[in-house]
Amino acid sequence: MKKAIKILKKKLKIYNPKLKEECGVFGISNNEDSAALTALGLHALQHRGQEGCGIVTFDGEKYHSEKRFGLVGDNFNKEKVLNSLPGNYAIGHNRYSTTGENTLRNIQPFFADTNAGGIGVSHNGNLTNSITLRNKLVQDGAIFHTTSDTETIVQLIAKSKRNKTIDKIIDAIFQIQGGYALVMLTQNTLIGVRDPYGIRPLVIGKIKIVLCLLLKHVP
Predict the structure, then answer these.
(1) Catalytic residue positions?
(2) How far, in Å, CA of 67 to CA of 111, rounded?
Protein backbone atom coordinates (compact mmCIF):
# COMPACT_ATOMS: atom_id res chain seq x y z
CA MET A 1 0.00 0.00 0.00
CA LYS A 2 2.77 2.43 0.94
CA LYS A 3 4.50 1.72 -2.37
CA ALA A 4 1.27 2.40 -4.30
CA ILE A 5 0.72 5.69 -2.45
CA LYS A 6 4.30 6.71 -3.16
CA ILE A 7 3.82 6.05 -6.91
CA LEU A 8 0.50 7.93 -6.87
CA LYS A 9 2.04 10.95 -5.17
CA LYS A 10 4.83 10.97 -7.74
CA LYS A 11 2.30 10.94 -10.59
CA LEU A 12 0.22 13.69 -9.01
CA LYS A 13 3.33 15.80 -8.51
CA ILE A 14 4.11 15.57 -12.23
CA TYR A 15 0.52 16.03 -13.42
CA ASN A 16 -0.96 19.50 -13.16
CA PRO A 17 -4.75 19.35 -13.65
CA LYS A 18 -5.09 23.13 -13.88
CA LEU A 19 -6.27 24.25 -17.32
CA LYS A 20 -3.68 26.44 -18.99
CA GLU A 21 -3.54 28.76 -21.95
CA GLU A 22 -6.35 28.80 -24.50
CA CYS A 23 -6.62 25.94 -26.99
CA GLY A 24 -4.04 24.46 -29.34
CA VAL A 25 -4.27 24.33 -33.13
CA PHE A 26 -2.25 22.28 -35.61
CA GLY A 27 -2.32 21.71 -39.36
CA ILE A 28 -0.34 19.66 -41.87
CA SER A 29 -0.38 19.16 -45.63
CA ASN A 30 1.04 16.76 -48.21
CA ASN A 31 1.72 13.77 -45.95
CA GLU A 32 0.08 10.34 -46.06
CA ASP A 33 0.33 10.11 -42.25
CA SER A 34 -1.34 13.48 -41.73
CA ALA A 35 -3.79 12.24 -39.08
CA ALA A 36 -1.08 10.52 -37.00
CA LEU A 37 1.24 13.54 -37.23
CA THR A 38 -1.62 15.86 -36.29
CA ALA A 39 -2.34 13.70 -33.25
CA LEU A 40 1.34 13.95 -32.27
CA GLY A 41 1.25 17.72 -32.81
CA LEU A 42 -1.84 18.04 -30.62
CA HIS A 43 -0.21 15.86 -27.98
CA ALA A 44 2.72 18.30 -27.89
CA LEU A 45 0.17 21.12 -27.45
CA GLN A 46 -1.86 19.28 -24.81
CA HIS A 47 -0.96 21.87 -22.14
CA ARG A 48 -3.09 24.38 -24.03
CA GLY A 49 -6.36 22.49 -23.57
CA GLN A 50 -7.59 19.28 -21.98
CA GLU A 51 -11.39 19.39 -22.30
CA GLY A 52 -11.59 17.85 -25.77
CA CYS A 53 -9.77 17.27 -29.04
CA GLY A 54 -10.59 16.77 -32.69
CA ILE A 55 -9.10 16.17 -36.13
CA VAL A 56 -10.47 16.83 -39.62
CA THR A 57 -8.80 15.34 -42.72
CA PHE A 58 -9.33 15.56 -46.47
CA ASP A 59 -8.61 12.60 -48.76
CA GLY A 60 -8.99 14.37 -52.10
CA GLU A 61 -12.72 13.68 -52.30
CA LYS A 62 -14.24 13.68 -48.84
CA TYR A 63 -13.68 15.26 -45.42
CA HIS A 64 -13.43 13.05 -42.34
CA SER A 65 -13.89 14.14 -38.73
CA GLU A 66 -13.35 12.71 -35.25
CA LYS A 67 -14.08 14.67 -32.05
CA ARG A 68 -13.75 13.39 -28.51
CA PHE A 69 -13.82 14.57 -24.90
CA GLY A 70 -10.57 14.27 -22.98
CA LEU A 71 -6.90 13.99 -23.83
CA VAL A 72 -5.31 13.31 -27.21
CA GLY A 73 -3.40 10.29 -25.88
CA ASP A 74 -6.64 8.70 -24.68
CA ASN A 75 -8.52 9.22 -27.95
CA PHE A 76 -6.13 9.17 -30.92
CA ASN A 77 -3.78 6.39 -29.86
CA LYS A 78 -5.55 3.56 -31.68
CA GLU A 79 -4.94 2.48 -35.28
CA LYS A 80 -8.69 2.06 -35.87
CA VAL A 81 -9.36 5.73 -35.05
CA LEU A 82 -6.48 7.02 -37.19
CA ASN A 83 -7.56 4.79 -40.09
CA SER A 84 -10.94 6.51 -40.02
CA LEU A 85 -9.13 9.77 -40.86
CA PRO A 86 -7.58 9.15 -44.32
CA GLY A 87 -5.98 11.84 -46.44
CA ASN A 88 -2.80 13.86 -46.89
CA TYR A 89 -4.24 17.02 -45.33
CA ALA A 90 -5.34 17.50 -41.72
CA ILE A 91 -6.07 20.07 -39.05
CA GLY A 92 -6.53 19.51 -35.32
CA HIS A 93 -7.61 21.27 -32.16
CA ASN A 94 -7.26 20.96 -28.38
CA ARG A 95 -10.17 22.61 -26.59
CA TYR A 96 -10.02 25.03 -23.67
CA SER A 97 -13.41 26.73 -23.36
CA THR A 98 -12.89 30.48 -23.22
CA THR A 99 -16.42 30.82 -24.62
CA GLY A 100 -19.24 28.32 -25.12
CA GLU A 101 -20.45 25.30 -23.18
CA ASN A 102 -18.39 22.16 -22.60
CA THR A 103 -20.35 19.98 -25.04
CA LEU A 104 -19.29 17.72 -27.91
CA ARG A 105 -20.77 20.07 -30.51
CA ASN A 106 -18.38 22.82 -29.34
CA ILE A 107 -15.26 20.70 -29.89
CA GLN A 108 -13.30 21.76 -32.96
CA PRO A 109 -12.32 21.65 -35.79
CA PHE A 110 -15.63 22.91 -37.18
CA PHE A 111 -16.61 21.96 -40.70
CA ALA A 112 -19.02 23.48 -43.20
CA ASP A 113 -20.03 23.02 -46.82
CA THR A 114 -20.11 26.22 -48.87
CA ASN A 115 -20.99 26.87 -52.50
CA ALA A 116 -17.23 26.94 -53.17
CA GLY A 117 -16.56 23.64 -51.37
CA GLY A 118 -16.01 22.33 -47.85
CA ILE A 119 -13.89 24.04 -45.22
CA GLY A 120 -12.58 23.00 -41.81
CA VAL A 121 -11.64 25.57 -39.16
CA SER A 122 -9.54 25.36 -35.97
CA HIS A 123 -9.50 28.53 -33.91
CA ASN A 124 -7.65 29.81 -30.85
CA GLY A 125 -8.41 33.12 -29.19
CA ASN A 126 -11.35 35.42 -28.55
CA LEU A 127 -13.35 37.62 -30.90
CA THR A 128 -14.26 40.91 -29.24
CA ASN A 129 -17.10 41.55 -31.67
CA SER A 130 -18.48 37.99 -31.83
CA ILE A 131 -21.81 38.82 -30.15
CA THR A 132 -22.48 41.70 -32.55
CA LEU A 133 -21.58 39.58 -35.57
CA ARG A 134 -23.60 36.61 -34.31
CA ASN A 135 -26.73 38.73 -33.76
CA LYS A 136 -26.41 40.20 -37.25
CA LEU A 137 -25.99 36.73 -38.80
CA VAL A 138 -29.03 35.38 -36.93
CA GLN A 139 -31.10 38.35 -38.12
CA ASP A 140 -30.03 37.49 -41.67
CA GLY A 141 -31.25 33.90 -41.24
CA ALA A 142 -28.14 32.03 -40.09
CA ILE A 143 -28.70 29.00 -37.86
CA PHE A 144 -26.03 28.33 -35.21
CA HIS A 145 -25.42 24.79 -33.95
CA THR A 146 -22.87 25.67 -31.24
CA THR A 147 -22.31 28.31 -28.58
CA SER A 148 -18.69 28.87 -29.62
CA ASP A 149 -17.64 32.15 -31.23
CA THR A 150 -15.62 30.09 -33.71
CA GLU A 151 -18.81 29.22 -35.55
CA THR A 152 -19.23 32.93 -36.25
CA ILE A 153 -16.15 32.73 -38.47
CA VAL A 154 -17.52 29.67 -40.27
CA GLN A 155 -20.86 31.42 -40.83
CA LEU A 156 -19.16 34.54 -42.19
CA ILE A 157 -17.19 32.44 -44.65
CA ALA A 158 -20.29 30.50 -45.73
CA LYS A 159 -22.40 33.64 -46.25
CA SER A 160 -19.75 35.60 -48.16
CA LYS A 161 -20.86 36.61 -51.65
CA ARG A 162 -17.41 36.09 -53.12
CA ASN A 163 -16.80 33.16 -55.45
CA LYS A 164 -13.42 31.70 -54.46
CA THR A 165 -12.93 30.08 -51.06
CA ILE A 166 -9.79 32.09 -50.31
CA ASP A 167 -11.70 35.30 -51.06
CA LYS A 168 -14.53 34.17 -48.76
CA ILE A 169 -11.99 33.64 -45.97
CA ILE A 170 -10.43 37.06 -46.53
CA ASP A 171 -13.88 38.63 -46.50
CA ALA A 172 -14.65 36.97 -43.16
CA ILE A 173 -11.29 37.84 -41.58
CA PHE A 174 -11.75 41.54 -42.34
CA GLN A 175 -14.95 41.48 -40.28
CA ILE A 176 -13.62 39.93 -37.06
CA GLN A 177 -11.77 41.67 -34.24
CA GLY A 178 -9.69 40.39 -31.33
CA GLY A 179 -6.71 38.14 -30.73
CA TYR A 180 -6.83 34.90 -32.70
CA ALA A 181 -4.99 32.23 -34.62
CA LEU A 182 -6.71 30.11 -37.27
CA VAL A 183 -5.74 26.98 -39.14
CA MET A 184 -8.11 26.11 -41.99
CA LEU A 185 -8.39 23.27 -44.45
CA THR A 186 -10.08 23.69 -47.80
CA GLN A 187 -9.75 20.89 -50.36
CA ASN A 188 -6.00 20.65 -51.02
CA THR A 189 -5.03 23.88 -49.26
CA LEU A 190 -3.81 24.48 -45.71
CA ILE A 191 -4.37 28.07 -44.58
CA GLY A 192 -3.02 29.85 -41.50
CA VAL A 193 -4.26 33.21 -40.21
CA ARG A 194 -3.23 35.25 -37.18
CA ASP A 195 -4.54 38.52 -35.78
CA PRO A 196 -2.80 41.71 -37.02
CA TYR A 197 -0.90 42.19 -33.74
CA GLY A 198 0.29 38.60 -33.39
CA ILE A 199 -1.38 38.16 -30.00
CA ARG A 200 -1.96 34.53 -30.93
CA PRO A 201 1.08 33.83 -33.16
CA LEU A 202 1.42 30.84 -35.46
CA VAL A 203 4.58 28.92 -36.23
CA ILE A 204 5.16 27.53 -39.72
CA GLY A 205 7.55 24.64 -40.27
CA LYS A 206 8.53 21.87 -42.66
CA ILE A 207 9.26 18.16 -42.46
CA LYS A 208 11.08 17.69 -45.76
CA ILE A 209 8.39 18.94 -48.18
CA VAL A 210 5.58 18.72 -45.62
CA LEU A 211 4.13 22.03 -44.43
CA CYS A 212 3.08 22.34 -40.76
CA LEU A 213 1.29 25.08 -38.83
CA LEU A 214 0.95 25.23 -35.07
CA LEU A 215 0.17 27.71 -32.35
CA LYS A 216 3.27 29.03 -30.58
CA HIS A 217 3.43 28.77 -26.80
CA VAL A 218 2.87 32.15 -25.20
CA PRO A 219 3.91 32.35 -21.52
Answers:
(1) 23
(2) 12
